[in-house]
């Protein structure tokens, strides 16, 4: 942290909790829940959160530093004035993992979902799944369903890119059951979305079957 500013510290900690990206409403909830700042002292405590984000983001007009310097802590994840913010340079650890599309639909709400995921999911498992796949496929990464290769299509921009799909929904994880490499499917963005088009989720084998059937016509 560049300065010991209570509001700034709380915002950073809230964003870490939510995996490096969060909506303003999520940040409000987390800071209120933490209780480390007496929000009752402020007429509009939520305005304090917005002010500190704006002051420390080069995506706003009130930022006083230089883009990319130590004071440039936050970025707008969905464009300006959308209310969604990210923490620059965030790296997942064992205590904070990023919410993915695989985690949507968890009925207990984002706070409990985050606590559940942090307890049951290893944030490094997708990276290890990618490394294992590359070792088995001559250094290549491609979609396990349709074969799409980001590097072959986009060159350097697509190098080492693939999405990790959790084949076991977080709602089905039991306490103490951790995500293993075998639970991760490496897929392209399109196939990842299609896996989620139905409830319960399609398996990669079923989606591959549908894809091959379509190709026959």
UniProtKB/TrEMBL annotation:
Q: Which GO terms describe its molecular function?
A: endonuclease activity
- Which InterPro entries does the entry mention? HNH (IPR002711), HNH_nuc (IPR003615)
Identify the residues that the record assigns to the HNH domain, covering every copy: 143-198
Keyword presence, DNA-binding: no
Q: Which domain of life is it from?
A: Bacteria
Q: Does the keyword Hydrolase apply?
A: yes
- Recite the UniProt keywords alphabetically: Endonuclease, Hydrolase, Nuclease
The protein in question is named: HNH endonuclease
Q: Which organism is this entry from?
A: Sporolactobacillus kofuensis
């Amino acid at each position: 942290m560049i300065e010991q500013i209570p509001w700034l510290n709380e915002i950073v900690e809230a964003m870490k909790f939510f995996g490096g990206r969060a909506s303003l409403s999520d940040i409000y909830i987390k800071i209120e829940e933490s209780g480390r700042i007496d929000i009752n002292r402020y007429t509009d405590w939520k305005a304090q959160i917005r002010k500190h984000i704006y002051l420390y983001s080069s995506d706003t007009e009130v930022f006083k530093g230089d883009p990319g310097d130590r004071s440039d802590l936050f970025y707008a994840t969905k464009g300006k004035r959308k209310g969604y913010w990210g923490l620059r340079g965030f790296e997942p650890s064992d205590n904070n993992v990023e919410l993915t599309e695989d985690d949507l639909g968890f009925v207990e709400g984002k706070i409990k979902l985050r606590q559940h995921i942090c307890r049951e999911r290893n944030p490094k498992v997708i990276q290890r799944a990618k490394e294992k796949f590359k070792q088995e496929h001559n250094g290549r990464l491609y979609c396990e369903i349709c074969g799409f290769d980001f590097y072959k299509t986009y060159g350097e921009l697509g190098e080492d890119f693939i999405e990790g799909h959790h084949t076991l929904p977080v709602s089905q994880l039991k306490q103490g059951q951790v995500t293993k490499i075998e639970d991760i499917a490496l897929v392209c963005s399109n196939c990842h979305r299609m896996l989620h088009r139905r409830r319960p989720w399609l398996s990669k084998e079923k989606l591959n079957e549908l894809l091959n059937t379509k190709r026959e016509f």
